[in-house]
Bifunctional glutamine synthetase adenylyltransferase/adenylyl-removing enzyme
Amino acid sequence: MGVVAHETFQRTAGSLARRGFSDGSRALRLLDEAGLDPEGDPGHLRIIAALSAAADPDLALLGFARLAESDDSPAELRAALIDHPDLCARLTKVLGASSALTDHLVRHPGDWRELRGADAARAPSAEELRSGLLHLVGADPNDTAPTAAPTAAADCTDPEGLAHTLRVAYRRRVLRLAGRDLTDRCTVDEASAELADLAAAVLDAALAIARAEHAEDAALCRLAVVGMGKCGGRELNYVSDVDVVFVAEPAEGVEDAQAAQRAAARLAAALMRIPGETDSEGTLWEVDAALRPEGKSGPLTRPLAGHVAYYERWAKTWEFQALLKARPIAGDAELGAAYMDAIAPMVWQAASRPNFVDDVQAMRRRVEAHIPAAEADRQVKLGPGGLRDIEFSVQLLQLVHGRSDPTLRAGGTLAALDALSSGGYVGREDAAGLSAAYRFLRRVEHLLQLSRLRRTHVLPDGATPEGQEHVRSLGRALGFTANPVTDLTAAWRRVAGEVRRLHEKLFYRPLLNAVARLPGAEARLTADQARDRLVALGFADPSGALRHLESLTSGVTRRAAIQRTLLPVMLGWFSAAPSPDAGLLGFRQVSEALGRTPWYLRLLRDDVRVAERMAHLLGTSRYVTDLLLRAPEAVAILDDDADLVQRRNAELAAEADAALRRHGDSETAVTAVRALRRRELLRTAAADLLEVTGIEGVGDALTAVTAITIDAALRTAIARVERERGGPLCTRITVIAMGRFGGNELSYASDADVMYVHDPVEGAETGSATESAKAVVFELQRLLELPCADPPLRLDADLRPEGKNGPMVRTLDSYAAYYGRWSSTWESQALLRAVPVAGDPELGARFVRLIDPIRYPAGGIEDDGVREIRKLKARMEAERLPRGADPTLHTKLGRGGLSDVEWVAQLLQLRHAYELPGLCTTGTLDALDVAAAHGRIDPDDAATLEVAWRLAARVRGVVMLVRGKAGDSVPTSLQDRTALALALGYRSEDDGEGAGELLLQDYRQVTRRARAVMERVFYDD
C-alpha cells in the first residue's frame, strides 16, 4: 500500500471520513496515488486539510490525484502547495468546486502556476485584459483597428490556431478569477465586472482574428461592438450568453455603403463564431445579437443612422429597457461612443411612452409564465424572488426617474440600487435588502455555473441523491458548514421570499405610473418652469405656491430628494382638488410638523395612494387640514381602507378608559379623551371624503365617539365632585341623547342635544341630590369645553322640559310628574329620538320605560295633536328660517330638506308606532323603511324622501368639511359652490367650473320632489 502501513489502513480511512470525505477507503487510495501521506509529513497534512475544506472534498481529492498524475513534476506541485498556503487554498477550492476547471488543469498541467504569486491575488484592469489578449494574438492594442498576426506565443499561423490560443488564455484568466473568488479575495460584483471585462477583451481579440481572416472586409468598414445585458452592465456570469449589437459604418474613403455593411456583417459573424466554437477547450459562450433592431429577423449590422431611425419609429418598450445597460465593449471606440450619444437620450425618455410601466410589468409576468413548473421554486434567475425580480424592479425605477435624474443612469444593478437609495427613490432598508439578496443570488448562480462551466440557473433537485450532494457542496462553498443542505435551502427560501415582497412593493408601485405620465420636462421641478406649471394647474397664488415648493424641495437632504420625486406628481392631484393652494400649504405644514420622522416620507413614496389621498383631502377640506395639523402623525391612517372604517365601540371605550387611568387630574384626563375624539373625527371625515363610508356611517361614527367622550367626561366629573365633597355621590345620573344625537345622525357641526336625569340614592335628601347632580353637570360641560387643541364638544339641553326656562337637571320622578301633567305634543315628538348614552344604565332604562307611552301613544296620536304638529311645522318654516336664506337651498329648514323628511317620519311614528314595533326607532331612514314596508307610506314616496334626506345631510356635512365652519345652505357664491360640488364628487367637462351648477340643479330637483311628497303625506293633501 505504499507509504501507508496495512495495519493502520482502517484507522486512517476512518479519520478521512470524519474529515468530510464520503468514502475513507477510496480517499486513502487516491491520496496514495497523489503521493500524500495522511499520517506523516505535516506539509502533506496541510494539503489534505485544505482538500477536506473544499466545497466537495471528494471532487477536490479526485482532481488533485488527476492533476498529480498528469503533471510532469508532481513533487514540485506538492512542494509548491506546502510552501505557498495561498496557492494551496486557491487550488484546492477550485478543484472542489469546478470539475470543468479541473479538466483544464489536467489538459494543461502547468497552469496550476496561474494560481501562485502576486498576480494571482490581484484583479486585472479592463485595459490589462484587453492588451494581454490582443498581444497574445499578435495585434497591437494601440491600433484603431487591431489585427491579429502569427506570434511566438500563439505558436500558429492560421486563424483557427489563434482562436484556440485565445480560448486557452480565456480559461486561464477564469481560473485565476475562480481562485480569488472561491477564497473570498473578491466580491461577487467584482467577479462579475471582471468576467464582463474579460468577455469584452475576448471579443476585441476575436475581432482582431476576424480582421486577419477577412482582410478585404476589414478594409471596407468600421465595426463597433456594443455590449448589452449583463455584459453591458458589467455583471456577467461565469457562463452566460454575451448579448451584443453591431454598429457599422464605411471606412474612410469607402463610398459604397451597402458593400461596407456586407463586409461588416461578415466580420461580425466571424467574431461571433470564435467564442462559440467547440474544440478541446469546449465552448466559451455564445455571442447573441438577438437584441438588435428587428431581432433575429433584422440585419446583423446597421449604420448608426439606421439604429437611430429604428428606435425613433419602431422600437418597443422592452427594447429600450434592454438598451439601459448598453455600452461599447469592443471594436471601433469612436463609433461606439457616437452610438451611445445618439441612443442614450431615447432610452431615458422611454418612460414617457404610452403604457410604458404597464408594458414592463406585463413583460415580467410573461417571463414568469414560461418557467417550467418543475423549476419554478428552484429558479435562481427567472423564478419568483429571483434575480430578474430585482433587475426588473431596479430597471423600471431607473427608467421612470432617470429621465430627470442623471445619477440613476448606471448600467449595473448594484450601482443603480445605491443611486436609487441615495436619491430617496427606494428606502435605505429596502435597497440594502435587495443588494444583499442580489449578491447572495449571484453567488449561488456563479457556483452553479462553475461546477461544469455550463449555463444554468436552477438549483439542484434536493429530492434526488445526486441533487442533494450538489446542494451540499453549494452550501459548503457558501459557508454553511454545519448543515449545508438545510441551511442553504432555508437561506434560499428566505431570500426569495424577501425579494418577492420587495419586488411587488417597488415594481408595482403606482407612483411609477404617475411619474411616467408626466411630461419629461415636468418630472422634476425647476424654478423657471414651476411658475407657469402652477398657473396652468389652477393655483391662484403661484408665487406663494412656488415658495412652498422651494421650501419643501431645496437642499441636499434625503427628505428634499424624496419631496422632489413626489411633488411633481402631487401637483396634479392638488390641481384636481377644489383648492390647490390650500392643499399645497397644508402639505407643507404637515411635512414640516413631522420634520425628519422617517416613516412619513417613506409612506408617501412607497404607497402612492397615501400621497394622492393626502393631496385630495388637504386641497378639499379645511376641517380635515385643521385636524391633521393638530396631530400630523394621523396621516398614517390613509394607508389602508381598513384604518378608515369606524372602530368598534368597545375599542373606543377601552381606549377612553385607558386615557382616564393614565392621567391623575380631571382636565388632563378629559383632554386625552377629547384627543381620541379628534382622531375619530379625522378618521370619519377622511372616510367620508374618500367615499369609504356613506352618510349613515358618518352619523354612526360621530354619534358613537360623542357618546363615549361624554360618558368618560361624566365619570371624571362625578369623581371630581366626589373628591371635593368628600364622599360618594348621593344620586345616580344618566345623560339622554336627543335630536340628531339620539337618532345616530350627528354631523360635523352638530351640538350634542341632551337631557340630564338623576335619581337620589335611597335615604338621600332630594334637594342635596339635585345640587350634587347640578355640580356634576356643570363640571361635565366645563371639561368638554375647555380651551385646547381639540374641537370642543358643546352640550345643548334646550329640549328639556320647559326648554331654557326649565331646570338643567331633574329627578326621574320630576320628569314623570311633568310628562304626566304638562307635556305637549312637540315634546312627545322630541322624545321620539331620546336614548340613554352615558351614566347609570339602569336609570337610563327606567327613563326609557317612562317615556315610551308618551312618544308611542296607544291608539296613535289624536287629530288635535296632528293639527298641532302641522302648525308647529308651518310656524318653524316661517319664523326659524334665517333672514335672506333661500328656502329652496337651506338643507335643514328649507323645502324638501332635512326637516321636511324628519317631520314626515316622526308623524308616521306618532300615528303608528303603537301597532308597528319597528317604528319604535330613533333613526329617520329606519322609520321610513318600516312605514313603507307596512303600507303606511307609498314606497316610491319613501324612496323620494330618503334620497332628499341623504343629499341634504351630505351637503350639510360637506359644507362643514370644505369651509371648516358650519353652514346650512348650499353656498350662493360660485367659488364656494364649485368647491362643495367637487368635494361631493360632481364633475363637468369644463374642469370643474360647471360642477357647482350641476350640484345646484341636482339639489333643487331632488328637494322639489321631496317637498311635493311631504305636502301630500304630512298635510294629507
